[in-house]
Every structure is written in structure tokens, then in C-alpha cells.
Amino acid sequence: MSRIGKHPVTIPSGVDVQLAERDITVKGSKGVLSMTFVEDVVVTREDDQLWVKPSHDGRRGRQMWGMQRTLLSNLIEGVSEGFTKKLEIVGVGYRAAVQGKNLKLNLGYSHDIDFPIPEGIEIKCPTQTTIEISGSDKQRVGQTAAVIRSYRKPEPYKGKGVKYAGEFIFRKEGKKK
Q1: N or C: less crowded end of the chain, CB within 10 Å?
Q2: Do domains 9-80 and 83-164 have the same CATH topology?
């Protein structure tokens, strides 16, 4: 029995859900998202709740049950509230700024990095050392944050680089004499 899958997904007010066969389309204040469910699960609607159940008593149906319910929950949360990831830049001279449709990163290389902002993603830089990535699709927000972080991952000696807000960087001691 799936611990996650057995709970219903509540549809908040202001969110419109269209369910057709295995396809679902969710419309809200933050945009429109859709997905196709695997054949091993069945989605039913009862009033303002969506229930995800395995279509048969097979192993794959039980495996997909919780995951499909979580993906559905992320769709509804994305169009109603949206998702945000925050990055911090640590290092002397390291900074970021939004210029038009690009994020300009100065991360200690001999050149600046121009990162084109993907469609459906909004990037803000409240200060030169913080980046806020927001959007309605959780996967795309997380992937964008991971790509920006990969340009200069935090190193363990001084902690310089791009890190997630609140991320703990394990520090190493330098050379001993």
C-alpha cells in the first residue's frame, strides 16, 4: 500500500481541472500544465478531490501509484502557487545580474557567462549575490537551478561558488605544515 498514493489531491479554488482518459490539463493563475498518466494507474474525480489508484494488482501499478499522485499534486500546486528556488553566490568578485532575457554570471572565469532564461521561468536577482528562480513547473525550476549551480559548484576549502540557499557545504582543512 502506497503511503503517498492513498491520500487524495485536493483541488483549490481558482484551479480548473480537465480529466480525459489518461490525460489531465490543469489551469490556474500561474499558467496551464498538462500530463499523461501511465496505463497502470486510474485517476478519478470526486467533488474537489482527485484520487489516484492502481488499475490492477500488479507490481508496476503499485510502483507507479505514489509517483503519479505526487506528479499530479505538483501540477496543481504549480498552477496555483508556483515553485521557487534560491541560489547564493559566495566568492570575491562573484556576482549575477539579469539583463533582458539573459542572466549574466561573473564567476571568476576569464569571461562572463550569459545564461539564456528558459521560457516559462522567471529569474530575479534581488542582490548581486542571490538568484531567485520561479515558475509553475517544478521540474523545470529545479533543472534551471541545477544548470546555473553547475557553472561553479561550491568548493570545500573556501566555500566559493554557487550554492542553494540553506545548503551545507562540508568544509575541509587546508594543508598542514
Answers
A1: C
A2: yes
Cα(112)–Cα(88) distance, integer angstroms: 17
Model pLDDT, residue 62: 84
Phi, psi (degrees; rounded to nearest 5) at 17: -115, 125
- In sign, the C-alpha dihedral spanning 152, 154, 159, 161 is positive
110-127: pLDDT as tens digits: 999 999 999 999 999 999
Strand order in the sheet with 16-20: 16-20, 23-28, 31-36
Please write the tens of the pLDDT for every residue from 64-91. Answer: 888 999 999 999 999 999 999 999 999 9
pTM, whole model, 2 decimals? 0.88
83-164, which class in CATH? Answer: alpha beta
Query: Residue 147: helix, strand or coil by DSSP?
Result: helix
Nearest to 77 by CA among 22, 29, 126, 143: 29
Ramachandran class of 115: left when φ > 0, alpha when ψ lies in -120 to 50, beta otherwise: beta
What are the structural domain ranges in the chain? 9-80, 83-164
Candidates 110, 111, 154; CA nearest to 129 is 154
> Which residues of the chain, if any, have pLDDT below 50?
none
